[in-house]
């Protein structure tokens, strides 16, 4: 397993990306790093992006994407073992590049790719499709102002997915006041009415979640089961 350290300094602040995977994936990661961090360094923030993978082959490789601020990283943090008991965790900073980690759920091992949702990052989402089994689209249930933007970004991305991989739509922040229910989100995202978000050609599931820093978290187990059962 290759281990590649990529490092660059901005104004005495260090941004480090640790990549542990195959040579092919390392090359893709480095290319994206070059485009996002070096070509767009004025938008870069001091943040530690990491890849922590198991030596064992994963049951599935999951790509988690969505608009910036949708709750992708919080969802991924709660997805792993030991994050379902309501134990407090630090509020994550917006992902500038990407994070990857292996998550054990019972006897199943998932490699989960959490990719930033800024406009800069969105241009490179399609680069992560290689060898991915499932796509998780995270949408902020509490942000009505950006639901149409989320739909357009999802449709644009799925046009690159020629293999019509299974899609799980995760509606986060259900504990927020005024959060949209799944039925409303389905309507706004044009599920079953858009040519690329159609159950007749793609396995599509939806789940509502809440992942507060403290308190009860819901929907994580349901999301896990849907990912495990999808094909």
Question: In a nutshell, what does this entry contain?
Answer:
The protein is α/β, with parallel strands linked by helices and 231 residues long.
How would you describe this protein?
- GTP binds at residues 66-73, 117.
- It comes from Mizuhopecten yessoensis.
- Pfam families: Arf (PF00025).
- Mg(2+) binds at residues 73, 95.
- One of its GO terms (molecular function) is GTPase activity.
- The protein is an alpha/beta fold and 231 residues long.
- It has two domains: 1-55; 60-230, 3-Layer(aba) Sandwich (Rossmann fold).
- It is built from six helices and nine strands, in the order ββαββαββαβαβαβα.
- Strands 1-2-3-5-6-4-7-8-9 form a nine-stranded mixed beta sheet, sandwiched between helices.
- Strand 8, helix 5 (182-188) and strand 9 (204-208) form a beta-alpha-beta unit.
- The longest helix has 16 residues, at 23-38.
Which characteristics define this entry?
single chain, 231 residues, alpha/beta, Rossmann fold, nine-stranded mixed beta sheet, 9 strands, 25% helix, globular
List the helices and strands and how they pair.
Layout: E1 2-10, E2 13-21, H1 23-38, E3 49-52, E4 60-66, H2 72-79, E5 98-105, E6 108-115, H3 119-122, E7 134-140, H4 147-158, E8 167-172, H5 182-188, E9 204-208, H6 220-229
SSE ordering: EEHEEHEEHEHEHEH
Q: Segments where pLDDT lies below 50 for 5+ residues?
A: 1-24, 30-51, 81-86
CATH architecture of the largest domain: 3-Layer(aba) Sandwich
Task: Please tell me how large the radius of gyration is.
Answer: 17 Å
Average of pLDDT: 75
Give the CA-based shape.
globular
Strand content: 25-35%
In the CATH hierarchy, the third-tier topology of the largest domain is known as Rossmann fold
Give the tally of β-strands: 9
Using the coordinates above, name the CATH class of the largest domain. Answer: Alpha Beta
Total of DSSP H or I helical runs spanning 4+ residues:
6
Helix content: 10-25%
Tell me the span between the first and last alpha carbons: 27 Å
Look at the helices and sheets and give the structural class: alpha/beta
């Amino acid at each position: 397993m290759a281990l590649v350290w990529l490092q660059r300094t901005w104004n005495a602040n260090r941004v480090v990306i640790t990549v542990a995977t195959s040579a092919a994936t390392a090359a893709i990661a480095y290319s994206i790093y070059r485009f996002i961090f070096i070509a767009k360094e004025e938008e870069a923030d001091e943040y530690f992006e990491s890849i922590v993978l198991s030596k064992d082959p994963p049951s599935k490789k999951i790509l988690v994407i969505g608009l910036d601020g949708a709750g992708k990283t919080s969802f991924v943090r709660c997805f792993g073992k030991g994050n379902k008991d309501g134990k407090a965790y630090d509020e994550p900073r917006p992902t500038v590049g990407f994070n990857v980690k292996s998550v054990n759920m019972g006897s199943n091992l998932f490699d989960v790719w959490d990719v930033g949702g800024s406009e800069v990052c969105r241009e490179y989402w399609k680069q992560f499709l290689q060898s991915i089994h499932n796509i998780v689209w995270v949408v902020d249930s509490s942000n009505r102002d950006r639901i149409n933007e989320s739909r357009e970004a999802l449709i644009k991305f799925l046009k690159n997915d020629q293999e019509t991989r299974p899609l799980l739509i995760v509606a986060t922040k259900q504990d927020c006041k005024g959060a949209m229910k799944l039925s409303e989100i389905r309507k706004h995202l044009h599920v079953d009415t858009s040519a690329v978000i159609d159950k007749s050609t793609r396995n599509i599931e939806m789940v509502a979640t809440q992942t507060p820093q403290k308190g009860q978290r819901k929907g994580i187990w349901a999301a896990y089961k849907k990912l495990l059962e999808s094909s």
